[in-house]
């Protein structure tokens, strides 16, 4: 992504994932590009089969967090 940086917000959704809004690049631990996106939901419960992305597992697992 190039150009002027945009505002990025990260919000912890109640009992759910992190909502990331803004033009971002999501990178793997080795620095490789996973996804370029303007909105994404990242796992915070640790149970997603699609980490780092949320797959809704928090509902099944009863994840509770503010």
Q: Beta-strand percentage?
A: 35-45%
- Average residue-wise pLDDT: 94
Q: List low-pLDDT spans.
A: none
Report the end-to-end length measured between terminal Cα atoms: 32 Å
Q: What is the C-level CATH assignment?
A: Alpha Beta
List the secondary-structure elements in sequence, H or E: EEEH
In short:
The protein is mainly beta.
Search tags:
three-stranded antiparallel β-sheet, 66 residues, 1 helix, flat, mainly beta
Polypeptide structure, described:
The protein is mainly β. It has a single domain, classed as Ribosomal Protein L9, domain 1, CATH 3.40.5. Helices cover 8% and strands 36% of the residues. It contains one helix and three strands, in the order βββα. The protein has one helix at 57-61; strands at 9-12, 18-27, 33-42. The chain has a three-stranded antiparallel β-sheet, with no helix packed on it. A hairpin with a 5-residue loop joins strand 1 and strand 2. The longest helix is centred in the last third of the chain and has 5 residues, at 57-61. The N and C termini lie far apart (32 Å). The mean pLDDT is 94.
Write the layout of secondary structure elements.
Layout: E1 9-12, E2 18-27, E3 33-42, H1 57-61
Antiparallel strand pairs: 1-2, 2-3
């Amino acid at each position: 992504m190039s150009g002027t940086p945009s505002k990025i917000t990260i919000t912890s959704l109640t009992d759910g994932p992190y909502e990331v809004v803004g033009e971002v690049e999501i990178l793997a631990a080795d620095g490789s590009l996973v996804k370029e996106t303007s909105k994404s939901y990242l796992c915070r419960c640790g149970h997603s089969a699609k980490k780092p992305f949320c797959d809704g597992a928090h509902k099944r697992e009863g994840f509770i967090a503010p």
